[in-house]
Amino acid sequence: MKLGPGVKLGSYEVVSVLGAGGMGEVYRARDVALGREVAIKILPDFVFAEPDRLARFEQEAKAAAALNHPNIVAIYQFGTDEGRPYIVSELLEGETLRNRLEHAPLPLRKAVDYGVQTAHGLAAAHKKGIVHRDLKPENLFLTRDGQVKILDFGVAKILEPSEGEGQGMDSAHLPTVDTRPGVVLGTWGYMSPEQVRGLAIDPRTDIFALGAILHEMVTGKRTFDRPTSADTISAILHEEPSAISQTVSRMPQGLQRVVDRCLEKNADQRFQSASDLAFALEALSDSSLTSTGERAQVKFQRTRRHAVIAAAGGLALAAAAALGYWLARPTSGPKATSYTQLTHDGQPKALLGTDGARLFLGMGEFPYQGGAEMPAGGGEPRNIPMPSPHAVPLTVSPDGANLLAVDGQGVPPSGPLWAVPVTGGSPRRLGDLSGEAGAWSPDGRMMAYARHNELLIADANGTGSRKLSSVAGDINSIVWSPDGPRLRFDSSQTVGQHEFWEVSTNGNDLRRLLAGWHNPPDECCGRWTADGEYFVFQSANQVWALPKTTFLLRSPSPIQLTSSPMSLSTPIPSKDGKKLFVIGEVHRGELMRYDMKTHQFAPFLAAISAEYVAFSKDGQWVAYVSYPEGTLWRSKVDGSERMQLTYPPMYPMLPRWSPDGRQILFFEFERNSKPSRIYLISADGGTPRELIPSDPNAQVDPNWSPDGSKVVFAGNPGESSSQIKVFQVANGKIFPLPGSQGMFSPRWSPEGRYIAAMSADSSRVMLFDFSTGKWNELAQGSIGWLNWSHDGKYIYVLDQSGKGAVLRIKIGDHTPEQVIALDGFKTTGRYRGSLALMSDDSPLLLREAGTQDVYALDWEAP
Predict the structure, then answer these.
(1) Do 600 and 633 lie in a common domain?
(2) Number of compact structural domains in the chain
(3) Same domain for 697 and 787?
(4) Distance CA 778, CA 767 (A)
(5) Burial, 600: exposed, middle or buried (Cβ in 10 Å; 0-12, 13-18, 19+)?
(6) Cα of 221 vs its chain's centroid, Å
(7) How many CB atoms lie within 10 A of CB 584?
């Protein structure tokens, strides 16, 4: 709705229209109270129509208003008029950088000056935790006195499109592309590679955009301009921008290096802060950009002052040399290129190791359903017999003669360790060693292994065991340094979060690697290259390399090796140092319902890719979490009246309807150093709110009592400190369930008499009877995902041992009964599988519809 002159918004009176676009209309207005002219932006109707988005916008507008910097437009007020939101800011006189560039490129000195100012403005915002995400010439305003003002801070972060939006919007202002799991906002040609891919972003995304703007300012040409958006994306991801010297004669090499560093595909190789970028540009503006006449005058003046500044000149020379080295240091690092697909079955698998000629794999989802080997040059995997149906392969010996396997139960499986010959023969129990992970030393004489959170070492035959160290979380994969004196391993204190540790083989010098690199931590499955120069690992579904620590490089930064549309995992360097083997996976599931009468699977909700399905008490509504995007939705059971309830980066888990059908509970695992929390959201949408904000402990897996007066929950899975607790909705009081220490995943029975839960190691199902106040063991095994039948007579579980099955356990006599054998049915999901029940107790499972295959990449290192 256009506003005419004289219309009042609070104490502001509209004077005239300044402009309009997809981000709203902008008006010149007069502040009647203070007697000054201001700019007022009226936000688009789609923000006005969605209360939760409006609330998020208000929060972000307030954050932007807190920025007080000469290079950021000042925000005076956020307000609403008849529910329509608007922002009041300072009125600027001048033009946008886009308007200036329509006439001609900028002189080098002017371009650098604008770059310095913009970098200072970005640094101020980044210090407050605000990333622009849509930096472009349209959002840089040049005032008449030569000052740069950054516009629209924080707006792009909030205006996330709902499904079906984006059409009809002004693409010059806010073109969008929905590439879930994250919603990507920005403008083609200025987005960073990570932004295009929908990955998590940070201030380095703005640095990439400023690099593209710098390139455009001095060349007069858009850096990644291509005929179509697809071509532009490809250029951003795979092509290097043209050298500025092709357009600008006598181009200073220092400026070229600065721009190139801003435009690195790998964010770790860019400037790591806007302040660093501003410093580099300021150093250039007083030296290499000076004209010939100016340099002659400077030279004459320096000659006259030479005697006075000799000592200072030496220091300056040293500083200049250091700066020159910093700008000119090589950006080349290790590279992984040229994907070659080695398997073509698409089945779940993971790489365990290589002996040079062969690759060794774990088959199926973890816990793996057996081991296999295949030629390193490609071919079909050949099964390797395991000592028992419960045995899970972990790794391979350095000579490729044996697989290390654990014969156990629980999640992860824990039990005796075995050496399994890959060419046949009798498996050998390794003494009395028992644990969940392990690895042989490079010379094959020693064995490091993990028992929950303890790291131990023993002789290769299983004798002489001794403890080395311990950490807070369960230890997973273990790897020896190539020369043998140190061990690296990853541990998980919270489900889905992994962090690296290193310790010497004598138990000294335990230290965390990459502390603070990702929050929450997401690093695992590392292996050393054959020459010991790089530690290759997976993080954020891609492969990274960590250089070896040296005297001059005490805290090296990880280098991103891949930017694949596939998720890449379990990287294994080849023995000859020429290849890097990975598992490439395309994530997708199909939601399937098992018909108890026909004993057949059929699609549910048109086989959407979703998990954690929950039904309202009246059976009319369903809630679920999309996979792999991780957004909460609700709809009628026929799929109609579908509504998205949450947005990234929030990743809801296990939603539960309130008995009255008005609200939905869910939890989210630890994020941004905040413990796992329980949230409550209206079934009609809105902003999720914490249920128990006063409780500082981890809150996981909430379930309503049958009457809705209480909520039962626990701590993080696998933690001995976890305890079953009951929250009273009316008064907010919390009381622990007696004897529940070390338990998690509570489920309240339909009639309210029992609470079922899992033991910390996921090996036992326990049952608490309120009538007796006692716990009893209901079942054992590698089981999880508890579900009560609607009549309260059974508990359905997902058996994750062997080839998998759905079981139901009778409460009366604790008898287990197989409902579905999952041989041939591959489950998937965030944790490789989950189980839900429909109102008639028909099991719901997410079937794997994606693919997993082995790929070889060419490895190059300087």
Answers:
(1) yes
(2) 4
(3) yes
(4) 6
(5) exposed
(6) 34
(7) 21
